[in-house]
Amino acid sequence: MKGTWILSWILIVFLSTVAVQSQYYSNSRPYDPKPEKVTNLHFFFHEYVGGQNPTSVLLAQANITSNNSTVPFGTLYVVDDPLRTGPEPDSEEIGNAQGLLVVAGINSTAVVTYLDFEFTTGEFNGSSLSVFSRNPIIWAERELSVVGGKGKFRMAKGFALINPYFMNATAAIHVFNVTVIHY
Ligand SMILES: *[C@@H]1O[C@H](CO)[C@@H](O)[C@H](O)[C@H]1NC(C)=O
Ligand SMILES: *[C@@H]1O[C@H](CO)[C@@H](O)[C@H](O)[C@H]1NC(C)=O
Ligand SMILES: *[C@@H]1O[C@H](CO)[C@@H](O)[C@H](O)[C@H]1NC(C)=O
Ligand SMILES: *[C@@H]1O[C@H](CO)[C@@H](O)[C@H](O)[C@H]1NC(C)=O
Ligand SMILES: *[C@@H]1O[C@H](CO)[C@@H](O)[C@H](O)[C@H]1NC(C)=O
Ligand SMILES: *[C@@H]1O[C@H](CO)[C@@H](O)[C@H](O)[C@H]1NC(C)=O
Ligand SMILES: *[C@@H]1O[C@H](CO)[C@@H](O)[C@H](O)[C@H]1NC(C)=O
Fold it and tell me: What's a single GO CC term here (predicted)?
């Protein structure tokens, strides 16, 4: 008799635990934000198309007849571009930007960027920024939005100001000045 009672209690406790665990969300509670910091990042974004070691390659292209542009609408590139402290190809590499560039302007040369900037040295080694924006590549100064981040850049928000530094048929180097607000 006593044994049955104990068994029943074990069963009740077990079932109520299962009921709590089977809920896929926690109780909502007031959000208690940590004090935010602002960090400025300054680096050079190196992109090489073609050649021996391209860092940007054509992945897919729509078959459209009005294809007179060198970067026609409906073109998708995958990139793994090094980030360096200077414009020289042998300056210190501090990270890389991986992701997609989509030529998404029908009558303009707008490129939509979907990039993850990961840093591999210093204070932010292993941390990354998620950058997503339309990028009208004909403007001199451009701006991309920082929509999130990982590691030391958790909950990041901010913006990147970009200026072209050097360009030829196979290489493009841009200066990035990023303002990041993060934990
Ligand atoms: C590309 O489009 C043209 C014109 O519409 C068509 O003749 C051709 O077969 C298409 N090519 C492919 C690979 O789909
Ligand atoms: C579009 O034009 C580019 C540059 O001339 C060329 O490399 C590419 O093959 C063309 N794409 C299509 C689908 O015709
Ligand atoms: C593409 O170039 C051809 C020849 O120069 C021209 O006739 C045509 O209108 C152009 N197409 C577009 C969409 O600009
Ligand atoms: C692109 O330009 C053509 C010709 O000027 C126009 O008919 C068309 O509506 C434009 N498309 C967009 C998405 O702006
Ligand atoms: C960056 O972090 C990785 C992984 O923790 C480590 O292997 C590497 O040595 C670090 N690099 C620098 C320059 O601190
Ligand atoms: C473009 O510049 C890069 C870096 O200076 C150089 O290595 C490459 O040979 C140049 N390409 C052309 C086509 O001039
Ligand atoms: C980077 O941008 C910030 C904010 O827009 C500005 O205050 C700063 O002077 C810029 N730094 C460089 C090196 O351009």
Answer: apoplast
Q: Do 57 and 50 meet the contact criterion of CB atoms below 8 Å apart?
A: no
Nearest CA to ligand 3 atom 6: 68
- Ligand 6, residues 168, 173, 174: which to mutate, most atoms within 8 A of Cβ? 168
Q: pLDDT of 59-108, one tens digit each?
A: 999 988 666 777 788 999 999 999 999 999 999 999 999 999 999 988 78
Rounded to whole angstroms, the Cα distance separating 146 from 131 reads: 5
- State which of 120, 123, 128 you would mutate to test the pocket of ligand 5, scoring each by most atoms of that ligand within 8 A of its C-beta: 120
Domains and CATH numbers, the chain: 33-182 (2.40.480.10)
User: pTM score, two decimals?
Assistant: 0.81
Residues 71, 75: Cα–Cα separation, whole Å: 7
